[in-house]
Amino acid sequence: MSLARFVLRRVLQGLFVIWGVITVVFALRFVTPGSPVDAVAPLDASPELRARIAQELGLDQPIYVQYVDYLFGLLQGDMGYSYISGTPAAVRVFARLPATIELAVAATLVALVFSIPLGVISATRRHKPADYAATSFSLVGISTPNFWLGIMLILIVSVNLGLLPTSRRPIGLLPALELLVFQLEVTGVRTWIAHMILPALTLGTYFTALIVRLTRSGMLDELGKSYVRATRAKGLPETLVRYKHVLRNTLIPIVTILGLQLGTLIGGAVITEFVFSWPGLGTLVINAITSRDWTIIQGSLIVIGAGFVIVNTAVDVLYATINPQVIYD
User: Fold this and answer.
1) Per residue, what are the HEC states of 280-302?
2) 8 A C-beta contact, residue 167 and residue 154
3) HSE-up of residue 140 (Cα within 13 Å, Cβ side)
């Protein structure tokens, strides 16, 4: 099977999964206790508003008609109308998506920058102080709850030392880059970085610790194989042996975890976003659940599911690039 057919098959499977997510999310509205109008209308909605909502939702139609209408609406970018916020659900959901993606990518970069070098050093200096330090860090990182770490960083770095802001995101990455490129103004980028550091460290610590352990164990397995001895016997530099041959063969499990974790982060790092008042999907979902804003919940769940599918499809394609021995079929 060619790479193009492999990618096409993965894309079709991804679309099937997204359709399943949409179907489940649609069905949830009807299996929850009470009328679907109760799940959409505000708590203090008048009888006239409830009647209008029921008519606009087409609740007088059979369920399969409502389902088809919902699917066609999604194809046109219509996720429904939030009567609580007074805005279309798609507007609110996609307005929060950039903040979540920025945080997820920043946390992933933090993890990759620190974890892979630490894992390689730990494996190549086994039973030495560097190995003990790396394994101790990974154990502490995996064991530390995100909410506790976030609060401690705020108290120490922001409140006591006054080095970084405590919370929120006053400017996004793209507006900051526009200021830098078109007006040569670095204030936006500096503000964005200052507000990003603590949430990214909080979210990326567990991820870093996990990849350190995976990299270390994978490197130890590969370093004992015969091809490593052969490359060393040919006189290749040790750095080339470690990073080109050994590390490359340990990347498959790392990429797997990377895809799963990145999909989770795009799904909304709920606790971290809540601790830092981050305006992402996680805080939006919490607020929507609290206020019973069902259209926002539906739209957010569909976007989160689509994020998982996109990231995992990209990971599947990346397998073939990293390891040519992967059999596509």
Assistant:
1) CHHHHHHHHHHHCCHHHHHHHHH
2) yes
3) 8
DSSP one-letter string for 28-90: HHHHSSS-HHHHHS-TT--HHHHHHHHHHTTTTS-HHHHHHHHHHHHHTT---EETTTTEEHH
d(Cα 268, Cα 146) in Å, to the nearest integer?
13
pLDDT tens-digit readout, 79-112: 888 877 788 888 888 888 888 888 888 888 888 8
Tell me how far apart the alpha carbons of residues 7 and 83 are, in angstroms, rounded to a whole number.
40
Quote the CA–CA distance of 103 and 221 in Å, as a whole number: 33
Question: How many Å apart are CA 213 and CA 136, to the nearest integer?
Answer: 10
pLDDT value at 203 more than 70: yes
Amino acid at 183: Q
Helices 129-143, 187-223: crossing angle, 10 deg rounding = 120
Collapsing DSSP to helix, strand or coil, 115 comes out as helix
The encoded tokens of residue 328 equal 């596509």
DSSP code at position 219: H
Q: Against a cut of 0.85, is the pTM above it?
A: no
Partner residues linked to 82 by β-bridges: 87
Residue-averaged pLDDT of the chain: 82
Q: Residue 14: CB partners within 8 Å, gap ≥ 6?
A: 309, 310, 312, 313
Q: Which residue is associated with the tokens 């995992």?
A: 312
Give the whole-angstrom CA distance, residue 214 versus residue 231. Answer: 23
In what helix (H) or strand (E) does residue 124 lie, and over which residues does it extend? helix 89-124
The answer to whether the Cα torsion of 250, 256, 260, 263 is positive or negative is positive
Containing H/E element for 128? none
Backbone conformation region of residue 164, classed left if phi is above 0, alpha if psi is from -120 to 50, else beta: beta
- The torsion angle over the Cα atoms of residues 180, 184, 188 and 190, rounded to 10 degrees, is 100
